[in-house]
Amino acid sequence: MFICGGASVLNTNLSSSHPRRPNMRSIVVSPVFFSLATARLFTVYNACPFTIWPAVWTNSSYGTAVPLVEGGWEAPTNTSKQFAVPDNWAAGRIWGRRGCDFSNPERQGPDTCVTGGCTGGLNCTSDGAAPTTLAEWTLSPTDDRHDYYDVSLLDGFDLPIRITSSAECPAAECAADLVASCPQPLRIPTDQNQPAQGCTTSCFANLDGNPGNSTNCCTGQFASQGSCPWSNIAFFDYFRESCPGAYAWTFDGNNQNVLKTCSGANRADYTVTFCPPA
């Protein structure tokens, strides 16, 4: 189930109402140009009763198109942020960070946050450190293909997430709070005197002591689907039963319950809600 790596959308070759898009002809986003006539509108809403720090990152190994937004920002409770995203965005991620402190200019790496911290401090220039709940996309720029999106627990869990679309395509979500009842070996921080803010995976917790050759990570001699059944992964049931619609096993790519699609012809806009209502 859990592997030290990304989920389905990151390996794919190629869904709430939204305000109208800005009335602009085009805009520059380094390193590419894209037209707002074909861009999608993304809304990130914090419904949590506390401040979080959302982040956005694009895996440049799969494409150079990037959203028109900074790599991270502070989001007090009940606030939202909207931004344009090119319709050929590939291997994109949005996640929320908890327990962040960016006050030290010499400490701007992953350890600036209890969960989801990244290189760059507030403005992420890398993906987030586990544990963190991920919302992932690869969009289609053409009508004959599909947007692919999912909520992934491959890097663990820190915040409930729901993805919805203007096209009313299937929602992707992990709306349950997995932190509250997180198994003790997976709890983050591990210090019992501090409040729990995340629930990592058996892989990232290094429960078997060998992440390079591990049934918990599906690595080494366990790197194939046949040699890494989910039944052999510690605490798999906790994540899958809590959020059956989330990507939780590295071989979930063919699981239509977790990998959602939306026709490219819909030109769907998307909303990411942290701590959505049940």
TrEMBL record:
Superkingdom of origin organism: Eukaryota
Pfam family, one: Thaumatin
Disulfide bond residue pairs: C48-C275, C100-C113, C118-C124, C169-C262, C174-C243, C182-C199, C203-C217, C218-C228
InterPro entries, per the entry: Osmotin/thaumatin-like_sf (IPR037176), Thaumatin (IPR001938)
Sorted UniProt keywords: Disulfide bond
PROSITE patterns cross-referenced by the UniProt entry: THAUMATIN_2
Coiled coil spans: none
Entry protein name: Thaumatin-like protein
